[in-house]
Amino acid sequence: xxxxxxxxxxxxxxxEKISADSVWAHRAxxxxxxxxxxxxxxxxxxxxxxxxxxxxxxxxxxILQKAAEEKIK
Length: 73
Description:
Blueprint: H1 2-16, H2 25-43, H3 50-72
């Protein structure tokens, strides 16, 4: 479980670093906000949907991939 939280924190840091000039920045902001709320729930001991958190993380990694592809074009 701690490895998953570390991965979630790393993903949040990476999403934050997407350039504001990127077409993916707005989407990253929304996903990042949702992931932050999920992390806060987990850290406070509240129940957070594992399925929803995994879906958001997948979306975050997808956005990172697309932002990186955009940058190298």
